[in-house]
Structures are given as C-alpha cells and as structure tokens.
Write the structure tokens for this entry.
Amino acid sequence: MAPRVLVSDELSETAVQIFRDRGVEVDYMPKLGKDKEKLAEIIDQYDGLAIRSATKVTEKLLEKATNLKVVGRAGIGVDNVDIPAASKRGVIVMNTPFGNSITTAEHAIAMMFAIARQLPEASASTHAGKWEKSKFMGVELFNKTLGVIGAGNIGGIVCDRAVGLKMKVVAYDPFLSEERAKQLGVTKVELDELLAKADFITLHVPLTDKTRNILSRENLAKTKKGVRIINCARGGLVDEAALKDALDSGHVAGAALDVFEVEPATENVLFGHPNVVCTPHLGASTTEAQENVALQVAEQISDYLLSGAVQNALNMPSVTAEEAAVMGPWLKLAGHIGAFIGQMTEEPIKAINILYDGAVSGMNLQALNAAVIGGVMKAANPEVNMVSAPVLAKERGIQISTTRQDKSGVFDAFVKVTMITDKRERSVAGTCFSDGKPRFIQIKGINIDAEVGEHMLYTTNEDVPGIIGLLGGTLGKHGVNIANFTLGRSAVGKDAIALLYLDQPIAPAVVAELEATGKFQQVKPLEFDGA
Ligand SMILES: NC(=O)C1=CN([C@@H]2O[C@H](COP(=O)(O)OP(=O)(O)OC[C@H]3O[C@@H](n4cnc5c(N)ncnc54)[C@H](O)[C@@H]3O)[C@@H](O)[C@H]2O)C=CC1
Ligand SMILES: O=C(O)C(=O)COP(=O)(O)O
C-alpha cells in the first residue's frame, strides 16, 4: 500500500506534485495546522506529515498519530515540534536546513534598511498625501557596527551582506570558530561586548532554553543608546515588554520584528509603536525559498517512506538512499540480533557492546547501532524503533560501546552484540550472505548457521543423543512445521544449542511439553518482525 502524507500548512504545489510523482498518496489541507482538534482527529491515517510553522506537533498530537513515521518541516525552525516526544514514539523529524536561509538573511537586511530609514512609515505617509519630507530623517548603515547574535547559516549570510555594505560586524556565537569568523570578515566577541558596541543588533539563533530571552530587560539595558534591533529568528528571543519600555524611553531607537512571542500575532504590546516595523513572519516567504523547501521536504519524506533513506533528520543519523540499499540487510540483521538478545533478557541491561568486523565496519555505524538497540528494546516495548531506542537506552543508563575491526576469517563481515546485566553476559553474532539474507552465526560463543525466520525456537541442552528426534517429534505431533533446523555445541558432551526456524508460532503448551521432558535447560520461542 502506498504511504500517505498529510500537508497541514501552506506549501508550494511542487510538494504535492513530487509526492504524487513518487507514488506517495498526499492530502493537501493547508488550513489544518491552525485547527488542532481536526488535525488530531485524522492524523492516525498518515505515515508522514509535512508542515511549516503553523502546525504544532505536540505530545498530545503525537499520541493520536499512531501510524506516523516522519514529520518534515519545510523550513528551518523546529520549535513547533516536540522532538523528544517524537523520538520516544519513533517518529523522525526532518527539516530543510538551507532552503530558505538566503531569503531570511535578505529579509533581515531589508528590515535593517527599513528601520534605518523608516521606510514603512514614510511610505504610508506619502500614500496619505502628506509629503512629510522633514519628518523622516534616517541614519546610514555605512561604518556602523552590526552585532550578529548567532552566526550559523542565516547569520553567516547576514554577516557577508553587511560586510558588503561596509558595516563593521561583530558576532556572538559560542560555536563560531576564529577561522570561520575570519573567513566571514567579522570579529568574534562575547555577548556583553556585542551589546556594548553594536549600533544594530540582529538575531539569528534558534529558540532553545538557552537562547530564550537572550535580549532580556537586563541585556537590553547593556546596549548602546540609540541601538536598533532586528529579529527575524524567533519570538521569545527578545523580552517584548522590556523592548517596548526601552523604545518608549528612547534608549532603543527602533525595532524591526518578523516574529513574535505569540503567533499568529493579532495583538502585541509593540503594535502601533512609531519606531517599530513589523512583518507577519515573512522571513522565508519568497517564491524561491518556498520552492526550495517544498521540493526538499517532499523528496526527503518520500525517500524515507519509500526507501528508508534519512536526510536532515534532527533525531536520527543520516542514511543515504545508496546506503539504505547496501545497508538494508545489515540493518535488518542488526535489528534481529538485538531482538534475539532482548527476548532472552529478563533483567535490566547495564551495557551493550557492539562489534563490527570487516566490510560492515565501514558502514554508517550510528544507524546500525540504533537498529541493534531498537531490536533489544523492542522486546520490552513493541513500539520502540531505531529512532526512539537510543533515547530510551540513554534514559535507562545503558552504556553502549562500539568496536570496529577487520579480522574476520570465515566471513567477509559480521556483527557481534554482547549484552551485559548484573547476572550474565550474552552474545549473539550474525552475518549477511550475498543473497542479502541475515543469518545467526554464533550464540553464546557456539558456532551455528541459522537463517533468520519470523518464528523461531531456541533451546539449550547437554550434548546427548536423541534431542533432534525429541524436538522434531514433539513439534510434528502438534503440527508445527520446521523450515530449518540448526545445531551447535561447544564440545562433545558439553553445552549444545538448537535454533529452529518454524512456519508458525509455537504454542505455550508445546513449550511446556518440551520443558517437562527435563532434557532442556532452556526452551525459548523467539519472534523476528520482518524476517
Ligand atoms: N523568520 C523566518 O521566517 C525564519 C526564521 N528562522 C529562524 O532562524 C534560526 C536560525 O537559522 P539558521 O541560521 O539556519 O540556523 P543555524 O543552526 O545554522 O545557526 C544558528 C546559530 O546559532 C548559534 N547558537 C546556538 N545557540 C546559541 C547561543 N546560546 N548563543 C549564540 N549563538 C547560539 C549556533 O552556534 C549556530 O551557529 C532558525 O532556528 C529559525 O528559528 C529560519 C528561517 C526562516
Ligand atoms: O524556516 C523557518 O524557521 C521559518 O521560520 C519559516 O517559517 P514559515 O515556514 O514561513 O512558517
């Protein structure tokens, strides 16, 4: 069945066309982002959700989104998506990190000109036939100091354009390297220095717990008298009430705001102030940017739903389409090994050590690790997947370690996972043959060769005659067909294991009957989803 995607905010038609061309069913309902009840009612029908900033992907919405696998943000900021809640539910969150950055940077520059020369007010006055030539006295940008808070993609472009305007640019960004600052032609400074020096301040940081209120009342008080402030990043970065007071007192000469604490902003303390220029979150609103982000988000969502390729996800390592094709069997194997271990474990896991040997050690290990951990944790919670598992494992304090090596002899490559609890250590290894089929090759250090099936039975016993007959006879009597039977032992007369691939699940009564023979130390049915 074709995956289904809902577009709940206004996106360029390009997105809808791409979904259709790629064979993804798409419903375009651009008003739904503003109607959370209606959205919550229908969200369970969709595998993917494409949004901009109006749709709020809250924990509550995600609870209803029982089939959702991916949220794609056609834009940059994802503060409208509860990413931890999405991760816990195994939903990938992607954005389009570059599609609208030039456009947004240009909007910030336009806003800077607008407050330097009071363009909107002068325009309104002229339209009104007033010809107030002497009222609108502006300031030049030339030789002024621009303080850029956040010099990432957008901030970096703003720096570049401002240098072109012959401004002096200082940037505050803890993650900006001296080398990059030099390349941009800007001076890296601390926040207090920026506040003290800047004639114009422009914000380009994401809204996080650390950046919220970065221009607080206290910080606004540290700015130069006559400063002008531009916010084309997020409402919530500037204390709006404090900004109004600073504008009223004349300490701040002007402010240009594209974003507001509450959006849509139909009321705001700053509305109506003569020195404030406002736009309704238009930073990304150009034909070019909207084409870029719509195209990118539709391709990314389709790639993920159709091939498992992951690009620009905020809660999952990237997997290219090429990698997804090569790694597919290995990701499956990693999940199966994890599932084997998870189903065999009844006590809390302290650590999981993952060894990658040979060709597989050169693959995307973050993704493979996520698949192993997902498999392990799925035994306790079937809802867990590659996205949610690493988060949950971390929450539970499980130590994950990875080793790469290239020592394999018999196999070109293999994956071996060792799980450690207070009581025991358990390890399972597997490989993929050229047919792409995952196989288990070692359990508890005992070599075997077992194709992975959906329903399996694992037994351990002392190496004595008659075990094959006993297993075959009992299963046969209950009409359980054996597709594949693998045996292994550590040494003659010592520990032996059997792994049976069955055509149907084995009933608890049959397990009990085998246990009652007293011949087995363990009789454990195992299930492998998607095998
Ligand atoms: N008005 C609009 O329509 C649009 C607004 N945006 C907003 O712009 C923001 C920035 O976008 P990009 O430049 O693409 O993001 P980015 O991630 O490339 O850059 C953000 C920069 O902020 C820096 N940063 C993070 N925490 C900081 C802190 N506490 N203090 C100082 N710097 C800090 C980072 O090191 C990074 O360099 C987005 O998060 C989004 O909220 C983005 C697009 C359109
Ligand atoms: O990309 C971003 O972060 C934006 O803020 C753009 O928002 P929008 O898609 O125009 O609602």
